[in-house]
Fold each of these.
Amino acid sequence: MAKTSANPSVYSFSARTLNGETISLERYRGRPMLIVNTASECGFTPQYAGLQTLHQQYAARGLEVLGFPCNQFGKQEPGDAQQIGSFCERNFGVSFQLFEKIDVKGPNAHPLFRFLTHAAPGLLGFEKIKWNFTKFLVDRDGRVVKRYAPGTKPEAIVDDIEALL
C-alpha cells in the first residue's frame, strides 16, 4: 500500500471505498483533508453530523473529509459496507467519502493510520489511537498538521481548517 519515499505523505497511501473501489489519496493532492476513524454505534457517532457540516461548508474551498469505519473499539462498527453507508446517509446525510472498515491500531492497522499516528502522536507522545472519532488534519502538501481527540467536536476545529484553506 505504501510507496517508498524520502518524504512520505498521505499521498503515498490508497484505500478501498465502501463500494470496493481502491483509490489513491493522491486524488486529494493540493486539498486539505480531515481524516477520521468512525463508528456507527459510539457515543461520538453524532459527530457524523458535524463532519457533514464541515464537508458542506468547506468542500467548495478544497476540504476533503474522509471517514474510515473501524470496529476495534467496543465493537461499535459491526455492520458491513452497505449497512455502514446506509446508516450514515439515512441518519446524518453523509455525502463525504467513506472507506471500507479497517483496523487503525495493532498488527493489522492500515498503513495510512500507522503513518498518521506516527506523524501526529497523541497525548504524552503515544502513537496508538485510543477510541473512535480520532481526527487528523492534513495540509495541502499531504503533511499531518494536527491530531484531535475523539471528544473534540468537528465544529471546534473550524479555525484550524480555515487556516489551511
Amino acid sequence: MRILRAGDYKRMPWKNGGGETVEIAVSPDDAGLAGFDWRVSMATVATNGPFSIFPGIDRTLVILDGNGMVLDIEGRAPALLTTASDPLPFPADIPVAARLQDGAITDLNVMTRRAGLAHTLIRIDIDGGTSMPLTSSTCLLLCHRGALSFRRDGESGTLAAGDALLIADAAGTALEIDGEARCYLVSITTP
C-alpha cells in the first residue's frame, strides 16, 4: 500500500492544451499521456469544449465539485453529469464535447488501455466503520471529502481530503476503514 498525498500530485496541461489536469497516479510510473496502461486524474473544466482523444483507451468520469456539465458523446444522447450522478464510462477515442451547466466543475477521470485492462469507479460514503472488500489486483481509494483511517494486513494510516491510497496485490483482501468521508474506489482488472 502506498499513500499518495494531494500536495504531491503532478500538474500537467491537457493533451489538447485546453486546461490543466492533476495526475493522482499512473502506470507505469512516470508514463506520458501516450504510454500509460492506466491513469487516475482530476481536472477543472472552466469552459465548454472538446475532450482530448486517447486512442485505445476507455474512460470513466464523475463530477467531484460544481454544478455539472453535459457531455455530448458521439453516438449517444447528451448526458447531464452532476455531483449526484453515477460515474459515466465511455470510450476516450471518440469525439466528446463538454457544456458546463453553471460555472466551472472539477471531475475525476479514470482511464485504462482497452487492449489489456478494464476498470470500475464507484462512490462510497463512509460514516463510522466499514470493511471494504477488494476484488481486483490494483485498487485506488481517493478520499474526496472528510478524513479516514485505514487498516489492511497489519498496515495502517490516514487519508485527509484529496489524499489517495494505492493498493497493489489487493484481490481477495479487505480494507478496514473508519471515519466520515466521501470516497471514490477505482478497481483495475485484467479482463
Amino acid sequence: MTESCTPPRRGPYADYFPNVIVYDHEHQKARFYDDLLLDRMVLINCMSVQDDAVRPVTQNLLQVQNLLGHRLGRDVFMYSLTIDPERDTPTVLRAFADHHGVKPGWQFLTGTSEVMTTLRDRLFAHSGGHAPGTNPESDCSMGMIRYGNESVGLWGSVATLAKPEQIVQRVAWITPRAQPEGAPRRSGPLPLTSENFGHRVNA
C-alpha cells in the first residue's frame, strides 16, 4: 500500500501555536493545535478554580454558553486554560465544570506547568508572576478572551467580563459567510437609459 505524500493540512498560524499535549476535565488527552484549534472557531480564556471565587469569569461565560446554544461543540468551541495546573487537575476541573453546568463543547484544560505557561505566553500578553489567589487585575491574560478561526487566520480579543452578547458577536466576525450562488450580478445604480432618465426628471 502506497503512503500519501500530501502533508497534513495546516492553518495560517500553525508555526506559532504550540502543538503541546493538554488534558481536559474529562481526562481526555489532546494536541493543542491539531485537535483543538485547526478547523475550529474558538473562544479561549485563562482561569483557575481558586481565582474564580475572586473574579467570577466562569459565571459570565456560562451566559455565553447559553447564547451559543446548539452551536457550542459543533462549530464553536470554548477552552478555559488553568494557570494553576498543580492544583487544577482534571479531577478538580471536572468537579468545577459539573458544579457550573458546563456543556459539551466547553473544555477546561490543564497540563504540565511548562506547557500551560507556554500556551499562556503565546495566546496572551501578561505581566507574569501572577499567583493564584492574588489580584487577577495584575495579569492581562486573566482579563481577556482570545477568539479565533485558525482555518482562515482570523484572531482577536475581548474582555472576559464584557457583556455575553458582545462576546458572542465577536464569533460572528470570524464566521465564514456562504458564497453566493449563480452567475455574478451587476451591483450599483441601473444603467442610464432614456426611459429611466425620464422617470427621474418627472419625479
Amino acid sequence: MTKGQNLTINGSGSYPGGQYDKISIRGDGTIANDVECSVIHVYGTSEALENVKAGSIKVFGEAEVKGNIQAEEMLIMGTMEVGGHAALKRIKILGTLEVGERLTGEEANIKGSISVKGDVEYETFESTGGFEINGLLNADKIIVSLRFGQSSAEEIGGGVIKVKKKNSFLPFGKDTGTLTAKVIEGDDIYLENTKADIVRGKRVKIGTGCQIGSVEYTTELSQEQSSTIKTKIKL
C-alpha cells in the first residue's frame, strides 16, 4: 500500500482524498475524493464521497462510503454503509454493514448483521448474527447459526452448507432464528429452521423446524419428522 502522510480528524470538516498512510477520524469528517491508505480507524462519524482503498479498516463509530470500497481486512463494531461494491477480503462484523451492490472476499465472520442488495461471494461464510441478501449467497463453506430474527437470501449455493438453530439460555431468548431462501443448492446440506422452495444437493439432511417445497438429491436424503417436504426427487 502506498505510503503518504497521516490524516487525523478530531473536529469536523471536509478533506481532500489522495494517498495517505494512516487515517484516524475521531470527530465528523468528510473525504471528498478517492482515497487510498494503509489503515483507517473511525471512532466518530466519517463520509467518503467517492471510492476507498485500504489495507485495514476498523469502524467503531459510523462510516459511509458513497462509491466502492476495497480492503484486505475490515472490523466493524459500529455501523457502515457502502453505496457500491464492497471487496473486503477478510471481514468481521460485530455491528452492522449495509452494501448497495455486491459483497465479495475470502473470509466472512458475521456476528452482527449485514444487508446486501446484490450477491455475496466468499470462500468461507460464517454467521451467528443475521443477514438479508437480495441476490445469491455463494461460498465453498457456509456455516449459519440461527440465534434470533430472520435471515434471508434469494438463493444459496456452496459446497458444504450447514444451518443450525442456536439454543439460547437467556429467559428472553425464546424465539430462535429462521432462514428463508427460494433455492438452496450444494454438495452436503444440513438444514434446521429453514423455509425453502427448492433444496438441491448430493447429500441432504433436513433437520428440525424446516418447511421445504421440493428436495432434489443424487445420493442421500434424511428427514426429521417435525419437518415437511412436499416433493422428494432422486436424480
